[in-house]
Amino acid sequence: MSEAKWYVVHTYSGYENKVKADIExxxxxxKLQEFILEVSVPMQNVSETKSNGEEKLVQKKMFPAYVLINxxxxxxxxxxxRNTRGVTGFVGPGSKPVPLxxxxxxxxxxxxxxxxxxxxxxxxxxxxxxxxxxxxxxxxTVVNEKNRIVTINIDMFGRExxxxxxxxxxKKL
Length: 173
Known about the structure:
The protein is of the alpha+beta class and about 170 residues long. It has two domains: about 100 residues, Alpha-Beta Plaits (2-Layer Sandwich), CATH 3.30.70; about 50 residues, SH3 type barrels (Roll). The chain is about 15% helix and about 40% strand. The chain is built from three helices and eleven strands; from the N terminus they run βαββββαβαβββββ.
């Protein structure tokens, strides 16, 4: 058995979450958990200005019309993914799917095969080093090792609000 790699699947625009849900359901039904490890629609927090001038933080898809899948490529997994409603094909020349390289995965913020030791624990105080919440201090309430994010509570308009931040965008105080 070859090792799992990340592949990119092209979908109809707006069908990304439906494709993700359908593939996850098929994985469960066909017992393919050891071959298709993760299905991801990467999201990012973006600040938008509303018509009244108010800033609002919204989540947007990083790669509209694409779904990332960490899987072992074989005839069965290829067939399952390729024949999911909403999928138009794998990214690659012709009908040959091409896995993402380590450099591409790192630039997209995927955790690749390099698993760094998690140095965060619930209760740790951290400061955000990048993004919209830069220089914000918060206390970790959840550590999600699989997705490599921490949830911290920040003070927004006098209320504690949970915010998810990537491991690489926070440092311990």
